[in-house]
């Protein structure tokens, strides 16, 4: 199942890129963030044009690298939103090949512009048990994606909100997945992507059987 095929009705920020056809498919939330009008096909140049000028060369270089060689990837960059405000984003994805040629990129984006206020974060981490799980999950995200503590926490919080799953549940599932041989991967980014997709599928199954 592809990333987009497993979306809920939440305004998630998912994408797929067909490298052979040079064609992007973006979730409604991502199209809105990038100010792509209804009926207009997103293009690489159009999406790069939304990126803050100083960050554009790095984003372009990373994109060209993962199109040449299949691998998991992550990147933090800034984008000018439709309201004119600058948003700070974390992109996490995977490029996949067939026969030695990259065929597709897929992944998701998390908006980390607004970090949790100190009081709200303390409320979430009030329990010692919950604090330990969340801190471990944050550490895994920080190490794998090369992001800071606030960005890692915001990724957990955003995923929790988008899928109506308690934040500590997301953290515990990540920790359990990292220790599960079924998720053993050479690349930690690929491992975490597969864990999150598995959680999404598990939660959907639980709702169907409720």
How do the strands and helices of this protein lay out in sequence?
Elements: E1 14-18, E2 23-26, H1 28-33, H2 44-50, H3 56-68, E3 72-80, E4 86-98, E5 101-111, H4 118-124, H5 128-145, H6 149-162, H7 167-178, H8 188-209
Antiparallel strand pairs: 1-2, 1-5, 3-4, 4-5
Helix pairs in contact: 5-6, 5-7, 6-7, 7-8
Write a concise keyword list for the protein shown above.
8 helices; alpha+beta; five-stranded antiparallel sheet; 20% strand; 210 residues
Distance between the termini: 22 Å
Instruction: Quickly give the CATH architecture of the largest domain.
Output: 2-Layer Sandwich
Total beta strand runs? 5
Outline: globular
Number of contiguous helices = 8
Question: Main β-sheet: number of strands, strand sense, barrel status?
Answer: 5 strands, antiparallel
Order of helices and strands: EEHHHEEEHHHHH
Low-confidence stretches: 1-11
The CATH superfamily label of the largest domain reads PAS domain
Give the strand line-up of the largest sheet.
Answer: 2-1-5-4-3
Question: What is Rg?
Answer: 17 Å
- CATH T-level topology of the largest domain: Beta-Lactamase
How much of the sequence is in beta strands? 15-25%
Q: Average pLDDT across residues?
A: 79
Count of the domains: 2
Level-1 CATH class name of the largest domain: Alpha Beta
Secondary-structure-based class equals alpha+beta
Structure description:
The structure is a single chain. This protein starts with 13 loop residues before the first strand and ends with a helix. It folds into two domains: 4-111, Beta-Lactamase; 118-209, no CATH class. The longest helix has 22 residues, at 188-209. Mean pLDDT is 79; it is low at 1-11. Helix content is 47%, strand content 20%. The protein has a five-stranded antiparallel β-sheet with strand order 2-1-5-4-3, with helices on both faces. By secondary structure, it is an alpha+beta fold. It is globular, with a radius of gyration of 17 Å.
